[in-house]
Amino acid sequence: MADRLGANRWFAPLPAALRDAIAAAASPRALAPGQWVYGQGDEDTGIVMVVDGLLRLETVVDERTVLIGVARAGTAFGQSRRHGGGPRIVTARAGPPSRVVTVGDSALGRIAVDQPAIWHAVSTLVYAQLDASVHGLAEMLALPPIARIAARLRPFAEDGAAPLSQADLAELCGLSRKTTSVHLATLEAAGAIARGYGSIRLTDPDMLARFCAAETV
Fold first, then answer.
1. At CA 153, angle to CA 76 and CA 203, rounded to 5?
2. pLDDT at 60 over 60
3. pLDDT one-digit tens code per residue, 174-188
4. Angle at 54 between CA 178 and CA 96, to 5 degrees
5. Which of 88, 76, 72 is nearest to 49 (CA)?
6. Among 126, 125, 127, 109, which Cα is nearest to 21's?
7. Structural contact between residues 89 and 59, judged by C-beta atoms closer than 8 angstroms
8. How far is CA 58 from the centre of its chain?
9. What is the pTM of this model?
10. What is the sign, positive or negative, of the torsion defined by CA atoms of 130, 136, 137, 142?
11. DSSP letter assigned to residue 75
């Protein structure tokens, strides 16, 4: 399990003893497309680490399900109720077939008996999620549409492609599908991306990065 999680950006920097304890308590899961890891409002909290695939993070607004983020392979997310946290605030489900490793609250408590540093690690993860949320909100407020789209695609550069439909990308950027399609065509004409069915290939990450800067568009 520790080898499987070696590429996870939250897990990898932890002290070896803590990594071993987490690996021993973790539960692997294989997910079919659309299968939930957990739902918004669930009382059972804990940590999710994405081994491969991609998870959709969704919330409900006025009875409409809204895609607010994605979790790629190598990332982790979640929280704990044990130190003032609340129930799950999003629904997490697989986009394509995915594999995850989960560490629930009860497992975190067992780890903490010998490894109290787990709570610092969880707090660091929660802070990272807050930082990403604030940064994403700032992009939505400050960047023009094409820069907003480029910024959403750029984290996938190391993967070579973003497994997102144009509809998904429009929702993540707070734009209409038509507006998103127009700007994707501009990015494609510039050589930054190549559109495909259900995914967007990133052909020139440097060009994409230039479009992320508001002053260049």
1. 120
2. yes
3. 999 999 999 999 999
4. 80
5. 76
6. 109
7. yes
8. 11
9. 0.89
10. positive
11. -
> Beta strand 64-72 with 54-61: parallel, antiparallel or unpaired?
antiparallel
- Other Cβ atoms within 10 Å of 132 Cβ, number: 14
* Tokens 């009875």, residue located: 63
Return the structure tokens found at 85: 């946290």
Separation CA 39–CA 18 (nearest Å): 28
Q: Identify which of 55, 63, 67, 6 has the alpha carbon closest to the alpha carbon of residue 29.
A: 55
207: nearest Cα among 150, 158, 149, 124:
150
- Nearest residue to 27 via CA among 91, 112, 110: 110
Query: Which residues contact residue 75 at a Cβ distance below 8 angstroms, ignoring those fewer than 6 apart?
Result: 8, 9, 10, 49, 50
User: Which burial class, exposed, middle or buried, applies to 14 when counting CB atoms under 10 A from its CB (0-12, 13-18, 19+)?
Assistant: buried
For 7-38, how does the pLDDT look when each residue is reduced to its tens digit (9 = 90+)?
Answer: 999 999 999 999 999 999 999 999 999 999 99
Per-residue pLDDT, averaged over 93-116, amounts to 96
Q: Are 209 and 147 contacting, i.e. CB atoms less than 8 angstroms apart? A: no
135 — pLDDT class (breaks 50, 70, 90): very high
C-alpha to C-alpha distance for 115 and 122, rounded to whole angstroms: 12
